[in-house]
Design a protein that fits this description.
The chain is of the alpha/beta class. The chain has helices spanning 14-25, 41-49, 65-71, 87-95, 113-116, 138-146, 180-203, 224-238; strands spanning 2-10, 29-36, 76-79, 100-104, 121-126, 134-135, 149-155, 165-171, 218-219. It folds into 2 domains: 1-119, 3-Layer(aba) Sandwich (Rossmann fold); 125-239, Formyl transferase, N-terminal domain (Rossmann fold, 3-Layer(aba) Sandwich), CATH 3.40.50.170. The protein is globular and about 50 Å long.
Amino acid sequence: MVLEKIALLASNTARTKAYIQKMIKDDMLPAVCILYADDISQFEEELDDYEESVGIEYFNLNEPLLYSLNKANVPYVYVENKDINSVEMSRCIANIQQEYLVYSGYGGYILRKHLFELGKKYLHVHAGILPQYRGSTTVYYSLLQEGIMGATCIFLNEEIDEGEIIAQGSFALPEKYIDIDYVYEPYIRSCVLSKALAEYKANGVFASHSQEKENAEIYYIIHPVLKHFVLLGQEVRSE
């Protein structure tokens, strides 16, 4: 099923691959995908070099975005600029009809004011339960403190991780070893995105609510030693 009011802002990342593959699997397709990068030829080159594989758990990290989109007949356009705040991207967003844009961007970019003035709403899945885990690398902090990972789908606003909450989910680590950064974290984000889209599909609207101010914490990039403790614990569990 095509969600006519939904578009996907798609960087060439593991997260985007997880999103589009989950959307295809759950039959909730974006009406259009905006593929963006500094060099858009990379999308075509990955497709040319790809050999189809089967039996992949969670999602296929090696499956090119163009392969996924072509398989599901999802139309796409290119923006040759990695900066989400670029003039080229603003023009592209302004010219599409979709009201809601699922944001799957490159790290280090924050949407600026002019994008919020285009009359669109941006859905973002944060890798942490909000408001308890705002900021960066929060999956590792929640694993250290609670032994679980979480994700929250929000409407982006001009503040960091403070937008209205649409859907949330908590996940335990699998018993066997898995790459957290490039496989499991993108996967759980895709599951929460699917939860939000399923509610929209059923009801025709995104039900959202403001974040509580109590228990709100902001975290910064985790120290490598602490991250090592988490990964070491994961290896022990999988033995």
